[in-house]
Amino acid sequence: MTNDPHGPQKFIWKYILSTDHKMIAKQYLLTGLVMALVGAFTAYLMRWQLGYPNTNAPGWGLVTPDKFNMLVTMHGTIMVFFVGMPLLVAALSNFVIPLQIGARDMAFPRLNMLSYWIFVLSCVALLASFFVPGGAPAGGWTGYPPLSASEQYTGVHWGMVLWITALALEFASFTMGGINYLATFMCLRVPGMTYFRVPMATWFLIGASLAFFFSVGPLIAGAVMLLLDNVAGTGFYIPAQGGEPLLWQHLFWFFGHPEVYVIFLPAVGCVLEILPVFSRKPIFGYRAIVWSMGAALALSYIVWAHHMFISGMNPRLATPFSITTILISVPFAVIIFCMLASLRQGSIRLDTPMLWGLGFLATFLIGGLTGIFLGSASADIYLHDTYFVVAHFHYTFFPSVFFGGFAGIYFWYPKLFGRRYNETLGKIHFWMTFIFFNATFWPIFRVGAGGMLRRIADPTQYRILDQFKEMNSMISVAAFILILGQVPFVWNFFWSMFRGPAADANPWRAGTLEWLAPSPPPHGNWGPGLPTVYVGPYEYSRPDMADDFVPQYRPVGVLGGPAGQA
Amino acid sequence: MDGAAHSDSAQMPTAHFTAKLAIWWLIGSEIMIFGGLIGSFILFRLARPQWAEMAHHLSVPIGSFNTLILLTSSYTMVRAFVSSGRRDRTATCWNLLVTALLGLTFLCVKGYEYAGKFSHGYYPNAGLFWAFYFTMTGLHALHVLIGIIAILILFVFGLRDRLWPIASRVEFTGLYWHFVDVVWIFLFPLLYLTS
Ligand code: HEM
Ligand SMILES: [Cu+2]
Fold first, then answer.
1. Which of A65, A130, A508, B3 stands the most exposed, by the fewest C-beta atoms within 10 Å?
2. What residues of chain A, 170 to 189, have a C-beta less than 8 Å from chain B?
3. Which ligand is nearest to the CA of A378?
């Protein structure tokens, strides 16, 4: 193979066409962060228009209604599929799963490389849509037909075709990735790494891949039909031709609800990994958490119609879907309570990763609780399609992608790059994000409950929204500061990569396997022999041990204490 | 992984098992794709009894013939797998070739059917029934085509006597081929026999 671990490597094999899971993780990380910049720019433009309607946005110009539709669409698509997916699913799975289970690489390294490059192609296809005649897709990130099915409604043809192409490529890429993560997880665990000794992050990343895997198929079928509606004149979704727009909504949300867990579960995994390390306590209820995740996964396939309560579907369906939706809060409540219980009486250290982890808990809780309001059909009839929903999903997505994601990035930064980031900058980044995230999205619940509709380009057109004029400007200012608050991160991320102090193998004194490998781990991770696992992942502060933690690779008997149970 | 890794992975599943698992995951995701399409069709079909009329335009004899072809090709694929297990190169190659040719026959018959429909003006945009018909059979035909290409690649490897290092790929390709067959077993009655 070209990837000779000994000789000097040519740039292209080391950085571009690498099959090393750690390099591929970094490629996904960087791609996701670049796409996040594009996503942030679209957010800035929308917020400018909403805060200061019909004035020129600095650096761009007037955001006209048709442009606004494109921005809404691209913002949602980019943030969910091109930031959340690569950062939380691909980058983390690639980096964390092999290291935590003791593998040397993915089960199929070349497939892994292929899936990354297909993803790049998909990003290119999506971004290209800004530049084609007719402009970017404008049918919303959920691509509801008939808007998305025919040019006559939005004036966009090529943009829409590119949108479908980009999603198709993305789904192909993540299906390949998912097969790889699952096969790696099932076949490459080192001796002693039983399923119930697998660290939380790996469990939740696998859960995310499962959620994706079994939900995306019907949407692929749906996307084929949508593409044919656009290019071959079929009418699957066009009422005038006998089609049914609702079919798309069912196929989309059958995928869409599991998809929100695809992004949410890895974040929970990161936070569960961080809590025991920074409170020096075993995780509370390891098995309860794993089973709850399984239950939530199973339920996630039968809640989708809560997005469609007022879509015109058979109203008799509303009650069963309300019930499943409220049921699904139960396993998540179990997980959240286990997290809180893990903190109780711990020796808590507030390093940057822990701050992000706690920030995730605090903010996500609000998102989850407001989901329960929306899940009851009677309340949703009023709240649907208002900014209340926008606030709900930003209080779930943003904590997942950014609080959970940054928790993971800061936590594994020393392992990723072999250097320490700057704590002070990390904390400034956290507080800027935490404060201005809440300052932005908390008032959005208020304007939503007050009746402000989603996806309107100009709130000044509606008299009832006059009362929210100041509030909308305030929200916009907070949002701009939130975006600016990411500058310390960008600086810290790149500066520390080259100039940060060197990190040793286990800077956090954590017990899982990745901290056994050198920082950064060499090609093949473990040197000549694979590690063997003797204990569970979170053996902190055991009363029978002098040392405050037992790493998974240490046979407990050797230390003099009794051999612990797994 | 490099040479050093072999000894320490002794206790773990073999590469053959890992690859087979991957094929099963792939088939799982394909089931969800066709499941979504077929499920949508069934729901539409139940609500539209008048589609029986259009199903009438599909030729049951031709469809049955194609079903027979595909079933036979599954049989020859199994023969190829069995022969590859016995390291019988000639029989493996012959069976692979026959499987690929049967697959091609299926596609030709399908093409003939399509041509007949087009000549009567039944294009994909001629109404929802035809949209479903062409989408479902077209997506299936695409899978048949991919299968044929994979089988022909194995055949060429076999001719050059390079089959044995990759004999397990005959098994994996076979799994995929059977899956494609099973999809047709669903499509045929749903589309042809509901008139
Ligand atoms: C207990 C947990 C949750 C419940 C009960 C819940 C419930 C709901 C309901 C009923 C809606 C539809 C509102 C409407 O359109 O009228 C909704 C929308 C949404 N939720 Fe949640 N949710 C929960 C957790 C989550 C999580 C964890 C995420 C993401 C990580 C999430 C992301 C979203 C998104 C993106 C939408 C809006 C999609 C759109 O229409 O554009 N939710 N949620
Ligand atoms: Cu949902």
1. B3
2. 175, 178-180, 182-183, 186-189
3. 1
Q: Tokens for A549? A: 């933690």
Residue B134 maps to which CATH number?
Answer: 1.20.120.80
Torsion over CA: A374, A377, A379, A381 (sign): positive
* Cβ neighbours for A478, distance < 8 A, ≥ 6 positions apart: A436, A439, A440, A443
Chain B positions touching A522 (Cβ under 8 A) are none
Structural domain harbouring A330: 16-550
Looking at the structure of chain B, the number of domains it has is 1
Q: How far apart are CA A102 and CA A27, in angstroms?
A: 22
Q: Specify the DSSP class assigned to residue A466.
A: G
The yes-or-no verdict on residue A333 having pLDDT over 70 is yes
Q: Are strands A539-540 and A549-550 parallel, antiparallel or unpaired?
A: antiparallel
Count structural domains, chain A.
1
B80 is a domain residue:
yes
Q: Give tens-digit pLDDT for A138-161.
A: 999 999 999 999 888 888 999 999
The first and second tokens of residue A345, run together, are 């009486």
CB A491 within 8 A of CB A432: no
B3 found inside a domain: no
Task: Please name the residues in contact with A28: beta carbons below 8 A apart, sequence gap of 6 or more.
Answer: A86, A87, A90, A91, A94, A116, A119
Q: Residue B135 is nearest to which of A183, A187, A224, comparing CB atoms? A: A224
| Confidence (pLDDT) at A560 | 44
Q: What is the pTM of this model?
A: 0.92
Question: Taken in order A230, A233, A234, A237, is the CA torsion positive or negative?
Answer: positive
Q: How far is CA B95 from CA A157, A370, B111, in A?
A: 47, 61, 24
The CATH number of residue A183's host domain is: 1.20.210.10
pLDDT at position B166, please? 67
ipTM of the complex, rounded to two decimals:
0.91
- Give the mean pLDDT of B49-68: 93
A485 three-class SS: coil
